[in-house]
Design goal:
21 strands, mainly beta, 320 residues, Porin, 3 helices, six-stranded antiparallel beta sheet, 13-stranded antiparallel beta sheet
Length: 320
């Protein structure tokens, strides 16, 4: 958790890297700026070159020759005509992709993470094998399909907001351990996650193609697999409660259609074990951790930190 909080803090302070526009004045000077507010008479801005980046300056619109936006749009103010400039801005910004639009994405990603083994599954395994030295093992990788949508909160596309649905599948041996004690004993479990996430993104560079992302959300999961005790196999199932999901990272807009992503996340999920039983009235039963000492039900902890790397394809719809 400390490492995760450190990543959050490090990425958060990176938001001071602001995007830059450029003012070309009629007196010949050129000023790299961050535009704060633009009215029909006056424009307010911050200089992007230290040490004066904190102060807010203003100029009259009539003193500006042109504004060059970082997205490629150029607005000519040499002949000041408010109606002409409004039309020019609308057409130029639309051509540069700065009008409000909805972005839809779909893609795939790979996960690698550690499962928190602070549960009683290990105690259960040690009891049935009569060996307190046994450890758990498993496959730490998984893959996911992602569907998302988002829109810029401003015309400059510095801030993005949206949501995403992620369907994540672990391999069948996400938890896999075997032993022989009065017969074959084996545990082989997998998980399916459904994550509903909301994201906020802020651009970190002048090209606006590198975004710092925050992805809080909710998720639930379904556990499958089997537990074999003394050569008898039991088909396992279990559904988690709705839990929280936290992630942060970067989106790299390689092109208008292709987006690469990197996330560091933390999930919080525990699942109670159930298995099919012909002797139960409901058709299902659950294992106790230690039938001799207590009646505690086996609970599998799927919580833990992870790293996710993905690639998505984007489609855009202009919002009127």
């Amino acid at each position: 958790m400390k490492a995760l909080f450190f990543c959050f803090s490090l990425l958060f302070f990176s938001t001071n890297l602001l995007a830059q526009d450029t003012l070309f004045m009629k007196n010949g000077t050129t000023i790299p700026v961050e535009i704060i507010e633009k009215g029909e008479v006056e424009l307010k801005y911050k200089k992007t070159t230290p040490p004066e980046s904190v102060a807010i300056y203003s100029v009259f619109i009539t003193d500006i020759a042109s504004i060059h936006y970082t997205n490629g749009a150029v607005i000519d103010y040499s002949k000041y005509d408010p109606e002409s400039i409004k039309k020019q801005e609308k057409e130029s910004l639309k051509a540069a992709g700065s009008v409000s639009s909805m972005r839809f994405t779909f893609g795939v990603s790979g996960n690698y993470g550690n499962r928190n083994e602070d549960d009683n599954l290990k105690l259960f395994w040690r009891f049935w094998n009569n060996d307190n030295r046994l450890e758990m093992a498993g496959n730490k990788s998984s893959y996911a399909f992602n569907l998302g949508f988002g829109t810029a909160l401003d015309g400059n596309k510095r801030n993005w907001f949206g949501g995403a649905l992620q369907l994540l599948f672990t391999p069948s041996d996400a938890i896999h351990v075997s032993n022989y004690y009065y017969g074959a004993n084996e545990i082989k479990l997998k998980m399916f996650y459904m994550n509903i996430m909301f994201f906020y993104g802020h651009t970190l560079n002048h090209k606006k193609n590198l975004l710092l992302m925050f992805d809080p959300g909710i998720e639930m999961g379904n556990m499958g697999g089997f537990i074999k005790i003394y050569d008898t196999s039991y088909k396992v199932s279990g559904t988690s409660k709705i839990t929280a999901h936290l992630a942060t990272g970067l989106d790299w807009i390689i092109s208008k259609r292709i987006i690469a992503s990197l996330r560091v996340g933390q999930r919080f999920m525990k699942v109670k074990e159930f298995h099919k039983s012909t002797t139960s009235k409901t058709g299902y039963a659950s294992f106790n951790v230690n039938p001799i000492a207590n009646d505690d039900q086996v609970i599998v902890n799927w919580s833990g930190t992870y790293i996710n790397v993905g690639l998505s394809f984007a489609l855009y719809k202009i919002l009127k």
